[in-house]
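Shapes recur. One chain:

:::
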Amino acid sequence: MEIHTKIPLIMSEIGAITKSKKNTQQNFMYRGVDDVMNALQPLLYGHGVFVVPEVLEHRREDRVSGKGNNLIYSVCTVKYTFYATDGSSISAVVVGEGMDSGDKASNKAMAIAFKYACFQVFCIPTEEMKDPDGETPPPSAPPVPEPKDERSMMFLCKDCGKVLKPYIDKNGKNVAIRAIATQTEKQFGRVLCTECALKAAGK
């Protein structure tokens, strides 16, 4: 099949992709997905190969950063299918993870997934890629589980320690947990449940 001859040809022509970008927040060098695309695109085009992504699974979680800010954590399982002009293809399934305080967590997860799919399918040289067995990350705690009745993080009242719960206001509208937390923190300087918020307001 043509795809099985095209990929080795591309592997023979692509050179090492080194760490050319710097993360200024954590002060480390890294390879960006655009480095991979810039190196691969001319070779894919020249050999008549293209790739089609398919998201097989997508999971999102709300987390809190060390500074107390909201972070959206996204995990995407993506299937990348590499096609040749004769219709032959091979597929690779990879998992990408990404975090963002806005709306780009899933974009980052897919970018990471694509980058490592290309690294592994084409066995791209990196010159200094570390083996996973060569380092041991510090232990981490699992995230606080989400309440089953709302896709939101679990908030605790700073006064009584109870878990915040949504409620129905006088207009019959459901008030979400996050809205309660945001409003009470803005009004009282701390996250409060509805009962403690009434007490703090003197009602």
